[in-house]
Amino acid sequence: MGNGAILRTLGVAASLALTVVPADAYKIYVSNEKDNTVTVINSDGFKVEQTLDVGQRPRGITMTKDGKYLLVCASDDDAVQVFDAVTLKLIKTLPSGPDPELFILHPTGNPLYIANEDDNLVTVVDINTNKVLAEVPVGVEPEGMGISPDGKVLVNTSETTNMAHFIDTTTYELTDNVLVDSRPRYAQFSHDGSQLWVSSEIGGTVAIIDPATRKIIKKLTFEVPGVTPEALQPVGVKVTQDGALAFIALGPANRVAVVNAKTFEIMKYLLVGQRVWQLAFSPDQKHLFSTNGVSNDISVIDVERLKVIKSIRTGRFPWGVVTSQE
Amino acid sequence: MLRTWCLIGGLAVSIVCWTPVYAASDADEGWPCVQRKIPVLSAGMMWAGPPVNEAAKSLWQTNGDVNALAVRLAARRTSLDEADKLIAGYAASVAADDKDLHLTALFAGVLDLINAERQQIMAGIEKYTRKQKSLAMAIGKTRAELKAALKVAEPNEDERKLRRDLEQKLSWQSRIHHDREKSLTFVCESPVILEQRVFAIARSIANHLE
């Protein structure tokens, strides 16, 4: 082999080495409400890889269970957009009902349950056939959407009615309502289905409900030295897979509360960015990402050390966040 | 309660209406911005470092270096990139034992200065709103006068002149009100921009804590 051929071979090898992506690399997708974009971040170095133009006022964002598609609530377009997660090309638009804000997929991957803020409905859509399967009337300004791990119970929170509505996913009928504090924003089941966490933004509390009895077993309140109580506005909630910890985004308090999910003791308040809104874990749950709507960034939290390790610039008003392989 | 104002154009009476955005909530009556009114930015919302105690507050006012740097960082003409460099330079110049206190004092100074500027701007916004409200009332008065003038079945020359004058007055008053209302969107951004600035500076200072 001549020198030129050797150099060419080495060159090819070097360029291959440079393009090798770590096996556990994943992507973080952030919807930017004011910019009508989605920021795509590579977990390898937490670098912004691309900014994708999407529909108007993107808020809720999720991935299909097979990881192939990215779903975005384009609230002002009254649609859910479906993007190829690799090419980031718009594949299709799902019917969503008016003003879709947040949504959740059934644990099997289909259907999609969408909260229609302006129409007091939850719309159920088959993501393969694009058909609306049901429209379930709920309380005023529906927002938070949680689904039990067995997929049998859907929970929707209504901001104005101040209730968590329990919906049977087979009959689409309301089976129960639990009154919570003012302006409930988010509902999250623990992975074993034994707890349902519901945040109340104006009430400043998080109710932990036993889904079996529909009774509130604990109500969390928050206190941060030097922060006025009105600024403590819980929104996004995430519980670790092992059920040990819960993280609660506290809005304009710029903090994420870390809660022992067994004893309900508040362990720590992490200073993240301004107006912290939604949260998402990395696939291995080693990191947690928070969208910070006023400082226009996401914060990266090291879940084991309970430390904020990085801030990544996004578009304006980052709202929702999801990771691939989640 | 929101009130809708209407611009009446010409005798054919074409009417254009709009609704000014006042008060995000009852608690913020007199506050015209969609953004919630946060009267004072508290240290706890920005800072997870050492407590911002009396020692820190007094140091920024008495120590010439800290004071001068706080003033420079608070000024909007200093870019955030430049602020990062200034903070890094200062942190490197302070002895390790003094670093946390001096950096906390620096943050306290920037927060105080930006809070003062922000409060002035917010007072200005509220004054602006009061002016808008009195202009809106004047529009209502002119409109009532015009309505009365239009009721005269066979107006004489003086009455026709009065109609024309009132129409012109209403047109000008409405235009000024409308233009000011539009510029509110930009005016309302100012307190938020300052909130973003103080947070970014706090974060930059905190990166150098021991």
Structure in words:
The complex is a heterodimer of chains A (326) and B (210). Chain A has a single domain (26-323), classed as YVTN repeat-like/Quinoprotein amine dehydrogenase (Methylamine Dehydrogenase, Chain H). In chain A, 5% of the residues lie in helices and 50% in strands. Chain A contains one helix and 28 strands. A four-stranded antiparallel β-sheet of chain A has the order 3-2-1-28, with no helix packed on it. Chain A is globular. Chain B has a two-stranded antiparallel sheet with strand order 1-2. Chain B has one domain. In chain B, a hairpin with a 4-residue loop joins strand 1 and strand 2. Chain B is rod-shaped. Chain B starts with a strand and ends with a helix.
Q: Reading side by side through the largest sheet of chain B, how are the strands ordered?
A: 1-2
Q: Work out the helix count of chain B.
A: 5
Q: What is the CATH C-level name of chain A?
A: Mainly Beta
Give helix % range of chain B: 55-70%
Shape of chain A: globular
| Helix proportion of chain A | under 10%
Name the features.
heterodimer; A: mainly beta; Methylamine Dehydrogenase, Chain H; 4-stranded antiparallel beta sheet; 28 strands; 5% helix; 50% strand; globular; B: two-stranded antiparallel ribbon; 5 helices; 66% helix; rod-shaped; disordered N terminus
Structure summarized in a few sentences:
Chain A has 326 residues and is mostly beta strands.
Provide the fold topology:
The complex is a heterodimer of chains A (326) and B (210).
Chain A: H1 3-19, E1 27-32, E2 37-42, E3 47-53, E4 58-63, E5 69-74, E6 79-84, E7 90-95, E8 100-105, E9 112-116, E10 121-125, E11 132-137, E12 142-147, E13 153-158, E14 163-168, E15 174-179, E16 184-189, E17 196-200, E18 205-210, E19 215-221, E20 237-239, E21 245-249, E22 255-260, E23 266-271, E24 276-281, E25 287-292, E26 297-302, E27 307-313, E28 318-323
Antiparallel strand pairs in A: 1-2, 1-28, 2-3, 4-5, 5-6, 6-7, 8-9, 9-10, 10-11, 12-13, 13-14, 14-15, 16-17, 17-18, 18-19, 20-21, 21-22, 22-23, 24-25, 25-26, 26-27
Chain B: E1 5-9, E2 14-18, H1 54-62, H2 64-74, H3 80-93, H4 96-150, H5 157-206
Antiparallel strand pairs in B: 1-2
Helix pairs in contact in B: 1-2, 1-4, 2-4, 3-5, 4-5
